[in-house]
């Protein structure tokens, strides 16, 4: 980000074009790819995209190719340090081996979040997700 002009809009992405980026989406998916383009809504185009899943001390990758991401689904966007990219302290396994564990982790997290939301509703007066007045 060598630009001297501070941006608070999608214009701040101009220095990220043609660089390898990590994108985390609202649904929890983690994508890595080269940012090729973006627009005023922060919609992103990633090339040579790879999706990664993790479980404990292992990870798996699945090649996704060209990926168009709607800007409202981006939670995090960060540049990958190419010097440290290959120094992953995790063991890589096949996608098919890790996928069932990943789905179980997602289900466990959903159950945990639901029970936590119920406790917050009953004991602390928080509203329920998707309830009245929840605009999202």
Automatic annotation (TrEMBL):
Keyword Nucleotide-binding set for record: no
InterPro entries named among the record's database cross-references: Lsm1, LSM_dom_sf, PTHR15588, Sm, Sm_dom_euk/arc
Domain of life: Eukaryota
Listed GO biological process terms: deadenylation-dependent decapping of nuclear-transcribed mRNA; mRNA processing
Signal sequence, renumbered to the chain: none
Family according to the record: Belongs to the snRNP Sm proteins family.
Protein name: U6 snRNA-associated Sm-like protein LSm1
Organism: Hermanssonia centrifuga
């Amino acid at each position: 980000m060598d630009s001297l002009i501070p941006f608070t809009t999608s214009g701040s992405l101009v220095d990220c074009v043609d660089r390898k980026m990590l994108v985390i989406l609202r649904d929890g998916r983690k994508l890595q790819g080269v940012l090729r383009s973006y627009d005023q809504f922060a919609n992103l185009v990633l090339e040579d995209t790879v999706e990664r899943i993790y479980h404990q001390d292992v990870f798996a990758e699945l090649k996704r190719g060209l990926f168009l991401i709607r800007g409202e689904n981006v939670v995090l966007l960060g540049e990958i340090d190419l010097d440290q990219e290959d120094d992953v302290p995790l063991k890589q396994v096949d996608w098919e081996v890790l996928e069932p564990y990943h789905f179980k982790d997602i289900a466990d997290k959903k159950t945990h979040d639901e029970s936590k939301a119920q406790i917050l509703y009953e004991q602390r007066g928080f509203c329920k997700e998707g309830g009245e007045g929840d605009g999202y």
